[in-house]
Automatic annotation (TrEMBL):
Coiled coil: none annotated. One of its GO terms (molecular function) is UDP-glucose 6-dehydrogenase activity. Belongs to the UDP-glucose/GDP-mannose dehydrogenase family. Its EC number is 1.1.1.22. Keywords: NAD, Oxidoreductase. It comes from Gossypium klotzschianum. GO terms for cellular component: nucleus. Residues 2-74 form the UDP-glucose/GDP-mannose dehydrogenase N-terminal domain. This is UDP-glucose 6-dehydrogenase. Residues 99-193 form the UDP-glucose/GDP-mannose dehydrogenase dimerisation domain. InterPro entries: 6-PGluconate_DH-like_C_sf (IPR008927), NAD(P)-bd_dom_sf (IPR036291), UDP-Glc/GDP-Man_DH_dimer (IPR014026), UDP-Glc/GDP-Man_DH_N (IPR001732), UDPglc_DH_euk (IPR028356).
Amino acid sequence: MIADVSKSDKIVVEKSTVPVKTAEAIEKILTHNSKGIKFQILSNPVFLAEGTAIQDLFNPDRVLIGGRETPEGNKAVQALKDVYAHWVPEDRILTTNLWSAELSKLAANAFLAQRISSVNAMSALYEATGADVTQVSYAVGKDTRIGPKFLNASVGFGGSCFQKDILNLVYICECNGLPEVAEYWKQVIKINDY
């Protein structure tokens, strides 16, 4: 483990989609097992789409770095920002606290899944009323508040992320005493299976 072999302070970057407060758990484990070494945990979730991962890596629409809002945490965030600054424009590098970064990744995936489920639910109505899915999607996508992406009816979301991340969000909502919000996100999965 990194705590066993470290001889100086370290920055540890979590890249995966994780439950909120994972950084806190990592920090506790490392601190408990360290020998006076300090660890700064950063959340730097990847926003890659299956099929465009390489393009997304080299030309991201944003890079998110979350860290502790302390002098040491800010220094660690800046160190990672400096790495990304070699190929990512500064206005695309966003910084937040740890929990906001962890939750932002879950929220982004949940919103994308929700959009896919919403379009598929609406497509059933389009078919029932004789509306043309392509025409409605084009008209709705022209609203700048909505935009044209993910407006085509499809078989629903699949892959390795969306359902897992929504269930993670459901769990977080339930743990924080938000059963109605948890139920809402469960319905996104239910309509996806419709």
